[in-house]
Write a structure and sequence with these properties.
One of its GO terms (molecular function) is protein-lysine N-methyltransferase activity. This protein is an alpha/beta fold. The chain contains nine helices and 14 strands. The strands form three sheets. The protein has a seven-stranded mixed sheet with strand order 10-9-8-11-12-14-13, with helices on both faces. Bound molecules: S-adenosylmethionine.
Amino acid sequence: MVKTWWELQILCEPELEDSVFWRLGSFGCRGTASEKKGNQILVRGYLPVFQAQLLDLAALSLWLRQDALCMEMAPPTIHWQLIDEQDWASSWKQYWLPQEIGDRFLINPAWYPTPENSDRIIIRLDPGMAFGTGNHATTQLCLESLEMRLSDSLLSPATGEQGGAVIADIGCGSGILSIGALLLGAKQVYAVDTDPLAVQSTQENLLLNGIDKERLVVAQGSVDVAAKLLTAPVDGIVCNILADVIIELVPQMSAIAKPSSWGIFSGILVEQSKAVADTLEKNGWVVATLWKRKEWCCLNVRRS
Ligand SMILES: C[S@@+](CC[C@H](N)C(=O)[O-])C[C@H]1O[C@@H](n2cnc3c(N)ncnc32)[C@H](O)[C@@H]1O
């Protein structure tokens, strides 16, 4: 039995209570409760931690705000926290199974035996506390986009010799996209994340996949840190963070790109795609394709 839960707390106008309950129910909350707090209502919702990642909670937060705007009410205040932190990092593992993604990848949890006769590229992963198991639609869209971008690579995945793409992975989480790119034949990846746990997880997953550590430079920070580590502009950028963050980082990411670079941007809700695309276009990128999965999308772009 899973004993670790997200507790979501939504403080709203009383008129919004029903719509908040409805939203939490359709989001998958297993239990809900409400109480009066002055002139407002505090609604609490509970769901197992493996059922939602931070991106999903951010999306829920956006929907709750949109629901309030549609009813011409003040937007609710939303908080979330993990409760009963009893070894949650291991309790969710039983729910995470090997998973095929796109045409080429197989994500294999580190505690499962590696399949011997698979014709897929196997990414072995233990994300620990970091985001990036491959279960999330945005990670899948990025891996599939990398497949497309790097499919004509003639490199040896084992050595990455003979040129090949140099890529920046902004917000690397578990390192899943960096490792995927390297196994597809990228020459080198510069991976950054503001979360130190993600940096640690990426380094550990690099070792798990037997990749030469010179091929993956990992550091804590954001695009500014990647820019300092780079010796030349990159051939490609992959960035799976929320839309607001991407919009803020586009000028800095453009500054580390070549005139011929490509980009893969996800973590974007479908309704936010126009704002991200507009910002990219203002900074000299052309949106080639927009791929959707569930409520999320991924922009595949290139420099004009
Ligand atoms: C949605 S996860 C993506 C993880 C992984 N790349 C994937 O696709 O599954 C976003 C990651 O971005 C990191 N992050 C958030 N804001 C950032 C910023 N401004 N710069 C760099 N990393 C950031 C978070 O710590 C988190 O690990």
